[in-house]
């Protein structure tokens, strides 16, 4: 890879900015000053420094976010704040995107990455990756609803949802449930409950496959995947 491209990808500015760093003799490769950005380097083998700080090359980033309400699962928007707006600049330059969609008023686990192959594996209905949600429901959720979800409810547009696992935690005027689905249609969980004449009043995603919400993360906070989480994600590719 060209040295100037590598440094630009790692957040050291535009190619012009990188050229200025080289002109000031601030870039070294294997302890030798390099002024030519077109020099090719091996990110895995060469020892690169900028202003005496080691450059650790990353092609992909994998972030686990506890998404808050009020932000949308998109990369840009002219009206609303997006989940990408919550990231620090050193993560934004990787041009990451959210994997799947959480509604504006939904909280919880959201994976953000720039790895398109992984994103496809996680959201493709054919891969049957389970997504589990906690929800508060207006109305008493019954064993009959559990059976309907197990058989696949028909949504208002005639689409028959794939079978879902519905667990009742508390059946009252406002019920508490957990539900696991393997697809991600628009407003899916909300529409599934509307199909059984009930309304979702709070929704939080708890897990996606083996990735689980890190409850130590404050709403709007994120961290990089740990080794086990990353290993799981890479196993899907």
UniProtKB/TrEMBL annotation:
It comes from the Bacteria. Residues 1-61 form the RNA-binding S4 domain. Signal peptide: none annotated. Its EC number is 5.4.99.-. SMART domains: S4. Keywords: Isomerase, RNA-binding. GO terms for molecular function: RNA binding; rRNA pseudouridine synthase activity. One of its GO terms (cellular component) is cytosol. GO terms for biological process: enzyme-directed rRNA pseudouridine synthesis. Belongs to the pseudouridine synthase RsuA family. PANTHER family: PSEUDOURIDINE SYNTHASE, PSEUDOURIDINE SYNTHASE FAMILY PROTEIN-RELATED. This is Pseudouridine synthase.
């Amino acid at each position: 890879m060209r040295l100037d491209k590598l440094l630009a990808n790692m957040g050291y500015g535009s190619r012009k900015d990188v050229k200025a760093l080289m002109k000031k003799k601030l870039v070294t490769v294997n302890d030798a000053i390099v002024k030519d950005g077109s020099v090719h380097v091996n990110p895995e083998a060469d020892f690169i420094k900028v202003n005496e700080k080691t450059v650790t090359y990353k092609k992909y980033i994998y972030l686990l976010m506890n998404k808050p309400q009020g932000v949308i699962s998109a990369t840009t928007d002219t009206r609303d704040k997006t989940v990408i707006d919550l990231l620090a600049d050193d993560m934004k330059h990787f041009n990451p995107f959210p994997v799947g969609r959480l509604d504006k008023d939904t909280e919880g686990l959201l994976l953000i990455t720039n790895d398109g192959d992984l994103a496809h594996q996680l959201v493709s209905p054919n891969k049957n990756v389970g997504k589990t949600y906690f929800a508060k429901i207006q109305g008493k959720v019954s064993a009959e609803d559990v059976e309907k979800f197990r058989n696949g409810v028909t949504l208002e547009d005639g689409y028959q949802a794939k079978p879902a696992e519905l667990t009742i935690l508390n059946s009252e005027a406002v019920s508490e449930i957990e539900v696991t689905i393997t697809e991600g249609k628009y407003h899916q969980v909300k529409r599934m409950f509307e199909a059984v004449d009930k309304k979702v009043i709070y929704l939080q995603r708890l897990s996606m496959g083996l990735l689980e919400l890190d409850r130590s993360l404050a709403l709007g906070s994120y961290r990089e995947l740990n080794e086990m989480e990353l290993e799981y994600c890479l196993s899907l590719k």
